[in-house]
Amino acid sequence: MNVLLQHYVKLSRRGERVRSLLRDRVNSPPIVPHSASDSYMLGSRARIHLNGWQQAAVAVGSAVGALLDPRRADLIAALGETTGKPAFERVLERMKRSPEGREVLLDRPRVISEKVGHAWDLPSNTFGAAYASFMGSRNFSPDDRPPVRFMETEELAYVAMRAREVHDFWHTLFGLPTNLIGETALKVIEFEQMLLPMCLLSVMGGTARFSEKQRSLFYQEYFPWAMRAGMKSTDLMCIYYEKHFDEDLEDVRKRWGIIPTPQPHAAKG
């Protein structure tokens, strides 16, 4: 873990972008979405308001539980929400300042089967078809994401949900597998993009479970690549991905500054 932190300090010295994110403040008026059904769709009835002590307790409990069982998506989601409010506020502000990001906030698209099912019918060279292939080959469903429970406002709840739901779009764009190395590398990119503490904790937890061979491969190939890829790509939370499904995969990668995962090395595990 010390090695990981040293790498972050060293490689994040290109930190003007990070410092500018840290200076952001949430002071814009809320954007009223087009759809009146968003509250129910985001699980607002299930959302829980916590005081400071309760939030800390949920964060600690979720962190411990997620380390013991990394397959618990609900615990990882709770950890992200209870530790990530400042990061989500910064993402929200950036989305409001971006024309495409504002459109996402107005429409509040959801990555669920009902909305993205047409991707399976698109030509094989398109981004949408690549996403469909990624999901279908793994028997994944876009409907399996846990609801947001610990965000205070509808806007922040949507941003948290959006970050969760575009995760598989990012897998597709960067060409990352869903094994331990692939997921850990994507968490590095997510940290560079959003500065979510949960992403850093997930990277620490992931590397702690690596074999020596995996650890060597990760630090030699995937970690420096992920840091570079996360910094060089455009602001990925401000993209209305669903409107680009029918575009060529390589074209959108170039436009968004995506650096695909290292080849021919394959992540093992």
From TrEMBL:
Pathway: Cofactor biosynthesis; ubiquinone biosynthesis
A single GO molecular function term of this UniProt record: zinc ion binding
InterPro entries: Coq4 (IPR007715), Coq4_euk (IPR027540)
EC number of this enzyme: 4.1.1.130
Record's keyword terms, sorted: Lyase, Membrane, Metal-binding, Mitochondrion, Mitochondrion inner membrane, Ubiquinone, Ubiquinone biosynthesis, Zinc
Binding-site residues, Zn(2+): H167, D168, H171, E183
GO annotations of cellular component type: extrinsic component of mitochondrial inner membrane
The family this protein is said to belong to: Belongs to the COQ4 family.
Function: Lyase that catalyzes the C1-decarboxylation of 4-hydroxy-3-methoxy-5-(all-trans-polyprenyl)benzoic acid into 2-methoxy-6-(all-trans-polyprenyl)phenol during ubiquinone biosynthesis.
Protein name in UniProt: Ubiquinone biosynthesis protein COQ4 homolog, mitochondrial
Organism: Heracleum sosnowskyi
